[in-house]
Amino acid sequence: MIEAIKYSANGEKIGTIHLPESLFAVELKDHNNPQSLLYEVIKTYLQNQRQGTVCKKGRGEVRGSTRKIFKQKGSGNARMGNNRTPVRRGGGMAFAIKPKDWYSQIPQKKKRLALKLALTEKAKGNQVIIIEALSFDKPCTKTAVALLNKIAPEKGKKLMVINDSDRNIIKSFSNIPQTNMDRADGLYAYEVLNCKYLIMTEDALQKAVEVFE
What's this model's pTM, rounded to 2 decimal places? Predict the structure, then answer.
């Protein structure tokens, strides 16, 4: 049975909570390697972040005359073509780079399994923190920093997971360095592994169980 420390909205420790085994205690079969699955999913995810919008002009796209600069023989100079050749200043690029789509689809089952494995790693390392309830009457970064200093004072990236898009909560935590935010229904393996502490509200934990279980 895996447990996590539970805090109040003021940062006071109020006990522990049992984490659902369907998300935080997932193991693969003996013939499967969890590291290889996580590597495949995260590599594909990072690959999909590439915009692929780089573009260079070839010799047929730059401005310039197509007339041969001077005759082939008799001038005493090296042979030369027109102004658009890649060897001349202002000419087109040889083998010009064109926009490319780097997107590769990740199977839904692999994506969810990788997320469960990432959550399991965080739970085993005692890096999951649960907050009973979290609400702000108005955006206040000072209150958010004070809360984080109480529940996770160590240095390192923190991922705050909430249930819905509460504007006051998002604005309160968005300006804090090394602190990212996400909704419970939008979690993915890379951001879970890329943080030191996974901080979830109790509502977000229930939502994650409903969506990913």
Answer: 0.83
**pLDDT value for 185:** 93
* CATH number of the domain within which 8 lies: 3.40.1370.10
What does the alpha-carbon distance between residue 1 and residue 4 come to, in Å, rounded to a whole number? Answer: 10
Q: Write down the pLDDT at residue 151.
A: 94
Residue 107, phi-psi category: left (phi > 0), alpha (psi -120 to 50), beta (remainder): beta
Which residues partner with 200 through β-bridges? 130, 161
Among the candidates 69, 98, 127, a domain finishes at 98
Cβ contacts of residue 48 below 8 Å, gap of 6+?
A: 102, 103, 104, 106
Residue 38, C-beta contacts closer than 8 angstroms, at least 6 positions apart: 114, 117, 118, 189, 193
The whole-number pLDDT of residue 135 equals 87
Q: Are strands 13-18 and 3-7 parallel, antiparallel or unpaired?
A: antiparallel
Give which of 141, 192, 201 is closest to 165, Cα–Cα: 201
Do 65 and 142 belong together in one domain? Answer: no
- The rounded mean pLDDT for the chain is 92
Structure tokens at 56: 């260079």
Which tokens hold the place of 4? 């996590």
For 123-139, the pLDDT digits (tens) are 999 999 999 988 899 99
What is the SS3 assignment for 8?
coil
